[in-house]
Amino acid sequence: MFNFHVYIRLIIVACIFMCNFLFAHGVKHDRVHQLSHQISKSPNNPQLYIKRGRVYQDSEEYVLAMQDYQQALKLDNNFHEALYWQGYIYSVQGQLELAEKQLLNYLKQQPDSPAGHRTLAKVYEQKNQLNLSIRHFDQAIDVDKKTPPQVYLERTRVQLKIKPLPIVQIEQGLNQAIKNFGAIVTIIELMVESYQHAQQWHKISDAIALLPKSLQQSPQWLYKKAFAYQMMNHNRQAKQTFIQVQQQIERLPEHRKNNPAFQQLWRQTNSQLKQLHE
C-alpha cells in the first residue's frame, strides 16, 4: 500500500542531499575561480598553485591537482609542500614507488613533519615493508607532541602483522596512548585484540577493567572477558560471565535485543556454555 508520508520523507531527504551537493560544488567552483584569478595576476607564486591544487584534490580531481603541484615545483623546485601533496596523491592512487620517492624527498627538507612520516608509514605498510612502516610511525609520534590517538592505533595494526608478534612494543605503545588520552574504547579494543593474538589471556580482564564500569558490563565486553576465562580453563568464572552476557542482553529494550549483532552474540554465548557443560 502506498505510504504518502514515507514518500514525502524520501523526497525531503533527496532534496537535502541534492542541495548539499550543489552547495559544495558551487563553493568549490567559486574557490577555483578566485584562485585562478589570483594566479592570473601572480603567475609566479607557487603557494597559489598549492591552494588551487588542494581544492582540486579535495574534489578527487587528481590530474588537475597534480598539474598545479607540478607547476609549483617548476617555479620553486624546493617547494616542499608540493612534494608532500604529490606523494600523498600517489599513495591514494596506489602508485607506491612514486609516493615513496616524493615523500622521501619531502622529508629530506622537512624531517620533523608528522604528516610526512605518517603518510610514508602507510605507504610502507601497503608495500609490506612493515618494519620501515613502524619506524616512520615512531617518528611521526616522536616529533608531534599532539599526536592524535589514531596514529597509535595505525601503528599497532601494522605491528599486529609482524611475526613473531612484538607484544612488548605493542603494549608499551598502547599504554602511552592511554596515558595521553585515557581509556578510549578503540584503544582498549586494540589492546584486547593484541593480547588475544599473543594468547596472553590473563591480561585481558585487566585491560577491560580500565573502561568505565557501565561499559565493562555491556554484553560485548563481558563476552570478551568470559572467553578469556575459558581459554585459561577458569571454567567456573567463564560460565558465570557467559551467563551475565545473556542476562545483559535480556535487559535490553526489545528493538536492541533483536538486533542481529546481539542475536549473534546470544548464539555464540550459548555455544560456549554448551562446550563448558560437556
From TrEMBL:
Pfam families: TPR_19. TPR repeats lie at residues 46-79. The keyword Membrane applies. The chain crosses the membrane at residues 6-24. It comes from the Bacteria. Keywords: Membrane, Repeat, TPR repeat, Transmembrane, Transmembrane helix. This is Tetratricopeptide repeat protein. It comes from Aliikangiella maris.
